[in-house]
């Protein structure tokens, strides 16, 4: 759709214009960035959203760069113009005798109705993206993808893998539901990163990453330990964020198209170590995943199975 494309391009231009200050990236950071070149976490000094690797994040980026940035920019310009008019025409010198009226029915109706219309225009694609996130693909349903104005553009294959992420105090537990095997994922200290996973980002690197195959639809069930508290599972590059609630099984999905490690964080204030329970999802090739999951299901030993994957 031509208008959709135009709006998206202009929106991206506005977003880029706000990022005039270049990101200050030191040589050390640059090394880390190349290692994770798929953009699995926010870079130092970053503007704009993290790089997208899923259809859901594509639609979020399109929504943000398109209709949302346009709406915001036009409202800002309009308010600025009103302020300029007021300053120039209605200052004490230019307008010594002010008008005495206090009501104007027409203008009051307009400034009530127009914001409602703006919200409706924003809400329609927003709810489309939201329902996409919440509906696990069955192979039939169409998804919005990078062009949220042409409904039904992206096809997503049926979910073939089910993973249950459970928020614990304070780390994540992941279960490969089909195989019935689970493991804990804990944050690494800076010393541990230097020793075991050099180059991985501070406060985001974990000992055991969640391993998933590329180009595969993963059904993600999210919950919290029965005696625990509410957490939230969020991975920005995937465009997912779901509450992890004790006694409740929430569901979302992702289908990552690039290999790499994608980081996220608990996104519900959950207690003393809320900031120290990062999420790391390692997307590998189908063959690598097959070797990993077969070994893990057999040995029930994560470290042993993960040693089959290429070194990080
Ligand atoms: Cu938490």
Please tell me about this protein's structure.
The protein has 312 residues and is an alpha+beta fold. The protein folds into two domains: 142 residues, Orthogonal Bundle (Helix Hairpins), CATH 1.10.287; 148 residues, Cupredoxins -  blue copper proteins (Immunoglobulin-like, Sandwich). It is 37% helix and 20% strand. It contains seven helices and twelve strands. The strands form three sheets. The chain has a five-stranded mixed β-sheet with strand order 5-4-3-7-10, with no helix packed on it. α3 packs antiparallel against α4. The longest helix has 35 residues. The radius of gyration is 24 Å and the shape is elongated. The site of copper (II) ion has 7 residues, from loops.
Provide keyphrases for this structure:
elongated, Immunoglobulin-like, 2 domains, five-stranded mixed sheet, alpha+beta, 312 residues, binds copper (II) ion, Helix Hairpins, 20% strand
Give a topology summary.
Layout: H1 2-17, H2 27-35, H3 55-89, H4 105-134, E1 142-143, E2 154-155, E3 161-168, E4 171-176, E5 181-185, H5 190-196, E6 210-213, E7 218-224, E8 231-235, E9 240-244, E10 250-254, E11 260-266, E12 279-284, H6 286-299, H7 302-306
Parallel strand pairs: 3-7, 6-12
Antiparallel strand pairs: 1-2, 3-4, 4-5, 7-10, 8-9, 8-11, 11-12
Helix pairs in contact: 1-3, 3-4
The protein binds copper (II) ion (CU).
């Amino acid at each position: 759709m031509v208008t959709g494309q135009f709006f998206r391009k202009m929106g991206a231009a506005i977003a880029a214009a706000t990022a005039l200050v270049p990101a200050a990236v030191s040589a050390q950071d640059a090394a880390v960035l190349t290692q994770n070149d798929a953009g699995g976490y926010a870079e130092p000094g970053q503007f704009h959203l993290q790089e997208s690797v899923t259809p859901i994040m594509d639609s979020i980026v399109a929504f943000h760069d398109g209709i949302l940035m346009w709406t915001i920019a036009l409202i800002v310009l309009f308010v600025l113009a009103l302020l300029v008019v007021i300053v120039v025409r209605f200052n004490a010198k230019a307008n010594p005798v002010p008008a005495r009226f206090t009501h104007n029915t027409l203008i009051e109706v307009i400034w009530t109705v127009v914001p409602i219309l703006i919200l409706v225009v924003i809400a329609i694609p927003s709810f489309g993206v939201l329902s996409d996130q919440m509906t696990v693909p069955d192979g039939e349903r169409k998804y919005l993808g990078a062009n949220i104005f042409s409904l039904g553009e992206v096809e997503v294959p049926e979910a073939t893998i089910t993973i249950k992420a459970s928020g614990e105090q304070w780390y994540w537990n992941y279960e490969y539901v089909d195989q019935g095997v689970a493991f804990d994922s804990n944050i690494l200290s800076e010393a541990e990163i230097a020793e075991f996973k050099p180059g991985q980002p501070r406060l985001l690197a974990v000992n055991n990453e969640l391993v998933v195959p590329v180009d595969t639809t993963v059904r993600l069930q999210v919950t919290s330990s029965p005696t625990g508290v509410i957490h939230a599972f969020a991975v920005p590059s995937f465009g997912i964020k779901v509450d992890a609630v004790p006694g409740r099984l929430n569901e979302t999905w992702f289908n990552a198209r690039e290999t790499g490690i994608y980081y996220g964080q608990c996104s519900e204030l959950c207690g003393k170590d809320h900031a120290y329970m990062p999420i790391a999802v390692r997307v590998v090739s189908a063959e690598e995943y097959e070797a990993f999951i077969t070994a893990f299901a057999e040995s029930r030993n994560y470290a042993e199975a993960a040693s089959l994957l290429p070194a990080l």
